[in-house]
Amino acid sequence: VGNDPASETYVGHKVRACKVAGFESTLLRYDANITEADLLKRIGVLAQSESVDGILVQLPLPAHINENRVLEAIPFEKDVDGFHPTNAGLVMQGRPHLVAATPAGIMELLRHYNVETAGKHAVVVGRSNIVGTPVSVLLSRNAAPGNCTVTLCHSRTPHLSNFTRQADILVVAAGKPHLVGASDVKPGAVVIDVGIHRMEDASRKQGFRLVGDVKFDEVAPLASAITPVPGGVGPMTIAALLQNTYKAYQTRQSLHNDSK
Ligand code: NAD
To answer: What is the SS3 assignment for 152?
Structure first.
């Protein structure tokens, strides 16, 4: 909805990823002044459609549209972003179905690189519903990769550095460019940088470069592992979206077969 430049980029990546994976995707664009009722009606059609396995509404939405109402209009079985309260609640209870894509991508990174998480201290900076809160829950659950002792920091945390310096695993999702530097990180920590920002850079053709919430150049030499921006959590989020879509498809197929 509308034409937010960052959203355009993300949507472009998602459409391309579907093509590469062999998924059929349809991009529906609406004008920024579409009414909420109209948008809900259109989502309702997709919700009912037998040929649609996954629905994703690119955020942010224009201010006159209630984001929660829109996200809740997507049936949780088709909620491949994992934002529906049912999917969020299942994560809380340790019975994940469609896990929010960015946290799911982060957990897959930890799994893939065999990062030891059990008994470690994980510090998460940021408490949003789509990243910080679910990733802190997943890291604390009794399932691999998890079993961490988790500290969740946010905008009201005083002396953030006192917490981040204790982290064996540091996940930064504050949405603040270069918030975390070398003096905020314990040597040997695993650092996951979720932030993504455009920073003016006249030497680049586009006039900007992408940076994260972590000062990569400073932190990389002392971390045991670190995700770059771009090229770290972003592509993992897209991979998790595709995985969720495939799972949604499989679940719907098995329900369909059971009802035959
Ligand atoms: P948000 O703005 O919803 O939440 C930010 C959180 O950080 C808040 O909970 C706030 O309390 C906390 N915070 C803000 N300033 C802080 C500070 N100085 N110290 C400690 N905590 C602070 O953001 P979000 O949607 O969770 O996204 C966070 C970042 O991750 C953004 O840069 C966003 O663009 C990026 N993001 C990237 C991906 C990806 O796929 N790479 C996906 C989602 C979000």
So the answer is: strand
Ligand 1 contact, 7 CB (< 6 A): no
Is the minimum distance from the CB of 153 to ligand 1 under 6 angstroms?
Answer: yes
Q: How far is the CA of 24 from the centre of ligand 1 (A)?
A: 31
Token pair, residue 63, equals 């201010």
Q: Which two tokens stand for residue 211?
A: 């940076």
- What proportion of the chain, given as a percentage, has pLDDT over 70? 100
The answer to whether the CB of 4 falls within 8 A of the CB of 59 is: no
* Whole-number Å distance between alpha carbons of 206 and 186: 35
This prediction has a pTM of: 0.96
137-150 pLDDT tens trace:
999 999 999 999 99
Q: Is the CB of residue 75 less than 8 Å from the CB of residue 87?
A: no
Query: What's the rounded Cα separation, in Å, for the pair 110 and 87?
Result: 21
Q: Over 80: is that where the pLDDT of 221 sits?
A: yes
Six-digit token string for 9: 């980029």
Distance CA 82, CA 85 (A): 8
> Which residue from 105, 103, 97, 165 is spatially nearest to 139, judged by alpha carbons?
103
